[in-house]
Amino acid sequence: MVKPPPDRLYGRSRGHKLRPRQEVLLGVTLERLRFRLDQAAAPAWLPELWLEIGFGGGEHALAQAAAHPEAGLIACEVFENGICSLLSALVPEGGEATAPLPPNLRLWPDDGRVLIRALPDACLDRLFLMFPDPWPKMRHAKRRFVHPAMLPELARVLKPGAEWRVASDDPTYQAWVTEVMGAQTLFDAPPPATERPEGWPPTRYEAKALKAGRTPLYWTFTRR
Questions:
Q1: What distance in Å separates the CA atoms of residue 156 and residue 12, rounded to the nearest whole number?
Q2: What is the pLDDT of residues 49-95, one digit of tens each?
Q3: Whose CA is closest to 32, among 89, 113, 114, 87?
Q4: What is the DSSP letter of 139?
Q5: Which end of the chain, C or N, has fewer beta carbons within 10 A?
Q6: Which among 125, 133, 169, 170 is annotated as catalytic?
Q7: pTM assigned to the model
């Protein structure tokens, strides 16, 4: 039996000291968008439900929400500076409590696996994992979201035919994803693309990888 990974995908939740504007964003704007655990039993409020694990600076989540108003997107991130980056792109200074917010976007500022375990069966139409922390040391492999123990839970919450998109520029993580997904039977797992497919918004992490000369891989797994 594969031991389940811990409920912690991340190392720290805060970088540099937050500025006053960021404190207001977390205390006011985040509460307006927060997805709560008591909502998980009936999470869909639009025809489709999508989930992003670790939205980083929020570029991908914001682009997907803007391009697909028919899909409710729950975006997960624990790093407060990343949450503030997304929120500051949504509301002008002074509008933290009143500026309009995307009706199809909700935020989960905690470990995404906690939310996934609370979701009902076959509720997700799409799942995103864009450039996750690779946890390159083998002793930390249990923290990787792509994990043999996690796959049955992901298969449970994804509808048959639902897409799971994964992108990574880290060679260790790329090899890990190839190994893990090659040894399972719950998802169709074709080879990854070496160029970002159409409909995949860019992120700052992808730009950083390309600038450094690393080659991202882009997987599209389909729930069987």
A1: 29
A2: 999 999 999 999 999 999 999 999 999 999 999 999 999 999 999 99
A3: 87
A4: G
A5: N
A6: 133
A7: 0.92
Using left for φ > 0, alpha for ψ between -120 and 50, and beta otherwise, residue 58 falls in left
The size of the chain, in residues, is 224
Q: What are the residues whose beta carbons fall under 8 Å from the beta carbon of 143, sequence distance 6 or more?
A: 5, 6, 8, 9, 133, 135
Output the six-digit token pair for 37. 């655990």
Task: For residue range 101-131, list pLDDT tens digits in order.
Answer: 999 999 999 999 999 999 999 999 999 999 9
Q: What is the mean pLDDT of the chain?
A: 93
Burial class (CB in 10 A: 0-12, 13-18, 19+), 222: middle
User: Tokens 């694990």, residue?
Assistant: 53
Judge whether residue 17 has pLDDT over 90.
Answer: no
φ, ψ dihedrals at 34, nearest 5°: -65, 130
Q: What's domain 46-223's superfamily in CATH?
A: Vaccinia Virus protein VP39 (3.40.50.150)
Structure tokens that stand for 90 in this block: 């949504």
Where exactly are the structural domains of the chain? 46-223
- Report the pLDDT value the prediction gives residue 224, as an integer from 0 to 100: 98
Query: What is the arrangement of strands in the sheet containing 217-223, beginning at the earlier edge strand?
Result: 105-108, 71-76, 48-53, 124-130, 158-168, 217-223, 187-188
Q: Which residues of 172-197 are buried (b: 16+ CB within 10 A; e: fewer)?
A: ebbebbbebbeeeeebebeebeeeee
Instruction: Output the six-digit token pair for 108.
Output: 């989960």
Assess whether 133 carries a catalytic annotation. Answer: yes
- Tell me the C-alpha distance between 78 and 41, whole Å: 22
Rounded Cα distance between 186 and 181, Å, is: 9
